[in-house]
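README, section 4: Worked example with a bound small molecule

Sections 1 through 3 covered apo chains. Here we extend the same pipeline to holo records, where the ligand is supplied as SMILES alongside the sequence. The molecule in this example is magnesium ion. Nothing else about the input changes; the structure line simply encodes the ligand pose together with the chain.
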Amino acid sequence: MNIICFDMEGVFTPEIWVNVAKKTGVSELTRTTRDEPDYDKLMQFRIALLKKHGIRLSDIQEVIGSLELLPGAREFFDWVRSQTQAIIVTDSFVEFAMPFIRKLGNPLVLCHNLVVSSDGMITGYHLRQEDPKRQVVKAFQLLKYTVIAIGDSYNDMGMIQQADHSIFYRPPDNVIRDYPDYPVTRTYDELKKRLSNMIGSE
Ligand SMILES: [Mg+2]
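The generated complex, written as structure tokens:
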């Protein structure tokens, strides 16, 4: 039995923080997991910037509400789910991800959650567990699934290294340079072709 673990941002949706940066004019918020491999460092940097500029959770949710899935994402994901099991494994937060998850047809999502103060400021976050993406893959392998991982960034490397098969989808050049051993795809059609072969060969 196969299960496919998909990253969310950069694979099915635009980068949330990049769009918050655009909307708020706080350009330092464009830094993402694509640039900073240390997730906690990145989050502490973001939380400090939000505080400095008085940006609340509701401001970010408003930006998220205005964003659509990447073109073709829903059709591609519907195809995947007609072929095999698929879930979303994201380092985003339940407070951010749900509008996108609804737009993807309500798949299972494994993500983190935010700590929010009474005045609506984001003051921290809770990781669901340490090394979360790798642990998801390990858990499904314990259940005797063959796991396929799809991601685009440094924060996906745990699941990409742990999975039985892994494919990058539109990774930036620095990720390809640092991890040259994985196949790279750039369109949903390319990804569909590779997945068809993997699922078909089971
Ligand atoms: Mg991503």
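What to look for in the output: Strands lie at 2-6, 85-93, 109-116, 122-126, 146-151, 165-169, 184-185. The chain has two domains: 2-13+70-200, 16-65.

Section 5 describes how to batch many such records.
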